[in-house]
Write a structure and sequence with these properties.
Elements: E1 2-4, H1 11-17, H2 23-26, E2 31-34, H3 42-51, E3 64-73, E4 102-107, H4 112-118, E5 126-131, E6 138-140, E7 143-146, E8 159-162, E9 168-172, E10 178-181, E11 183-196, H5 202-205, E12 210-211
């Protein structure tokens, strides 16, 4: 895992990401951007800044980027654009002692379509989470990453937690068990990006809200 604070230095990019009315940037649902496609949206600009300007070594081959928002408040997952009712989803999961709840339950990232169709587990090469600078503040909402093997559901394994600090980038192996702890005050906003070196299944691609 790598943690980089004060990551984005581009003032225009920082300012543009503060606009919560930008539905194109903050929309819910999974999207796909092929790394050879034009840079059109604000989300594309962020991905380009992170991954295509030589800051980090890229996986070979790089097929594209899966990206989505993770927005949670002290009650449950919410949508700031559409105010969708999520009450029928179990977004909160207590640990075995019942002393901790989670805004995003334990999971490891994988091609969900391929897994549902065949049972095969294929995970992204690299994952990252970025917390933009916003006026909204939050308490809690820590990312919890377990010391486990990829695909291992090791809920009792040791873990690290990382606070959702504005302008912080976290790079990690998304195939390892992780979760987001409960937000106890305010709202937590994040952009998640997975880098894929294998093409996603047709089933998974059909679930994308936007694919370019």
């Amino acid at each position: 895992m790598k943690i980089i604070d004060n990551f984005v230095k581009d003032r225009r990019l920082l300012n543009d990401m503060q606009d919560l009315s930008n539905k194109e940037f903050w929309h819910e649902g999974y999207s796909w951007w092929h790394n050879s496609s034009p840079t059109i949206t604000l989300r594309h600009r962020l991905i380009d800044y992170m991954w295509l300007q030589g800051k980090f070594e890229l996986p070979e081959p790089l097929i594209g980027f899966e990206h989505w928002t993770g927005i949670y408040d002290a009650e449950e997952k919410i949508s700031y654009q559409d105010h969708v009712d999520h009450s029928h989803f179990e977004h909160i999961q207590a640990d075995k002692k019942g002393s901790k709840k989670f805004a995003l339950i334990h999971h490891y990232d994988k091609d969900e379509g391929l897994y549902n169709d065949t049972g095969e587990i294929v995970s992204p090469s690299i994952g990252c989470i970025y917390y933009p600078i916003l006026k909204q503040k939050c308490k809690g909402g820590k990312l919890r990453i377990y010391d486990a093997e990829p695909g291992e559901q090791a809920y009792d394994a040791p873990f690290e937690t990382v606070d959702p600090v504005p302008n912080r980038l976290i790079i990690f192996n998304p195939g390892i068990l992780h979760a987001v702890e409960q937000v106890t005050k305010g709202s937590r906003f994040a952009i998640a990006i997975n880098l894929w070196s294998k093409a996603l299944s047709t089933t998974q691609m059909n679930e994308m809200r936007d694919a370019q």
